[in-house]
Amino acid sequence: MPKKLNILMFSGEYDKALAALILANTARDMDVDVTMFFAFWGLCLLRSDEKTNSDGKSFYEKLFSVMTPKGPEELPLSKMNFSGIGKAMMLEMMEDGKAPKLIDFLSGARKNGVKFYSCKLSMEIMGIDKNELIPEVEVMTAQQYLEDGLGADMQLFI
Amino acid sequence: MPKKLNILMFSGEYDKALAALILANTARDMDVDVTMFFAFWGLCLLRSDEKTNSDGKSFYEKLFSVMTPKGPEELPLSKMNFSGIGKAMMLEMMEDGKAPKLIDFLSGARKNGVKFYSCKLSMEIMGIDKNELIPEVEVMTAQQYLEDGLGADMQLFI
Amino acid sequence: MPKKLNILMFSGEYDKALAALILANTARDMDVDVTMFFAFWGLCLLRSDEKTNSDGKSFYEKLFSVMTPKGPEELPLSKMNFSGIGKAMMLEMMEDGKAPKLIDFLSGARKNGVKFYSCKLSMEIMGIDKNELIPEVEVMTAQQYLEDGLGADMQLFI
Known about the structure:
By secondary structure, chain A is an alpha/beta fold. Chain A contains 6 helices and 5 strands, in the order βαβαααβαβαβ. The longest helix of chain A has 16 residues, at 14-29. The radius of gyration of chain A is 16 Å and the shape is globular. The two termini of chain A are 26 Å apart. Chains in contact: A-B, A-C, B-C.
């Protein structure tokens, strides 16, 4: 039986998403089963700019959609973001160190069989439609997430 | 034997408390044992406005008591709070989606048998008295929290 | 077999580091094995002012090194820091309550056999050299962290 890692991705920040996806990719390399459950701000990581649409959205949902990051490279840093300067610095340092970018780790996770789930309730509250997210995502309830998590060897809330 | 979920509620933010309490309520619906241990800013969630009192508090403890949120609906968002505008927007969106508010999830958790514990050391540092918190709360040491957590199937630091 | 606690210390904030180190010390008192894996901002906790050096660092790495906290007592609060006023208040309250400071909990953890590991990839990205960190630290990959975590009874992402 393979070991199982379960990550609840709550935060919508570049550095935390990077940490989560590095762990997810590394775990897949070790043949560990990985499920990532994206809720609240974490959903921003799975959005893509071209797919954002505002059909049927309320005023607040449209405003919210415009104000929140669309996709991995738009996420801010959790610390020292300084309106983007800190993040630009971090990106330069990652490039100097030949480290892949967040979007590369996301692509890796998609190719390597990380299971992507999005939180049904969060999507309803934030007015996010499944079509606005990357196609691998399956919508899941909090109960399904807990069933998965309670059977896992390791659970992280990031 | 029922499964067991253990949550350390460290953060004092509306959205994180919402996530924690949705998980706690959902787990109770699945007959999972749930303990929530409130430490540091997480204690703000259990305060109630009417019960705050400053008897025997030092200058710093009084100041701190005034400056920190008193009860669930006073908590700010972790992101995009914008002095309350982002939170007002989130609340409107929750209402549009007919989602209950944080205080409803807290009431639900209290009725559904979630066990509430507060961190003894945090209360001492922050000068918070047991009488200022909701009545279900039991005061617990870090050791008691760890004993509970090490025997649980799933632990989250939120 | 002793129980095992595994903490991923991602955040570089005074209050979160305090929570993590209180848990680590308490767990050691209970004869629980404790490993702490420091990544990203968490590395700031293990730096020491005297040891910071900029030999061989790139421009961004030097700038980053100057702008980030050097050692436990320089860390800001995660909430209500108010350019340091909130933290000063918290420190006063801890002193009034005769609670040890963060640096005391760190010393305790070093004496009590908490295992300290630092994230190899984070160090490369942030340009931090092993010599800039406390001597107990061993450099570890994400894979080694996951192996440890998957075998632990309790894992926390802080």
